[in-house]
Amino acid sequence: MIERRDVFQAIADPTRRMIIQKLSRGPLNLAGIGEDFGISRQAIAKHIKVLNECGMISVTQKGREQFCEAHLGKLDEVLSWVAESRKVWNQRFDKLEKFLDDTSSE
């Protein structure tokens, strides 16, 4: 079975969020990405694979090195989801507030 990946999986892990943040400053090779993390190169490579499958980054081969580049436009999906969720919850809280006001004035 093929696992479907999306932007929410990409940002669910704190290490992947830090990798995205690091790549937001510009493309880096795997060694450059991994230098600030206390994890193995293989662990970094697994995170890179997930980010690539989610469409958050692209990986390009340049000579012997693989360079990663962020695609931050994918975060628009998160912004849209948050905005829609905020609207739904605000409506629910408004209804709750009205209900509480109505019941307290009785």
Termini separation (Å)?
58 Å
- The CATH superfamily turns out to be Winged helix-like DNA-binding domain superfamily/Winged helix DNA-binding domain
**Unreliable stretches, pLDDT < 50, 5 or more residues?**
none
According to CATH, the fold-level topology is Arc Repressor Mutant, subunit A
Largest sheet: 3 strands, antiparallel
CATH class assignment = Mainly Alpha
Q: Can you describe this structure?
A:
- Helices cover 59% and strands 13% of the residues.
- The longest helix has 29 residues, at 76-104.
- It is elongated, with a radius of gyration of 20 Å.
- The model has no long low-confidence stretch (mean pLDDT 90).
- By secondary structure, it is α+β, with helices and mostly antiparallel strands.
- The chain has one domain (7-104): Arc Repressor Mutant, subunit A (Orthogonal Bundle).
- Strand 2 (57-62) and strand 3 (65-70) form a beta hairpin.
- The protein has helices at 7-12, 14-23, 30-34, 41-53, 76-104, and strands spanning 28-29, 57-62, 65-70.
- The chain has a 3-stranded antiparallel sheet with strand order 1-3-2.
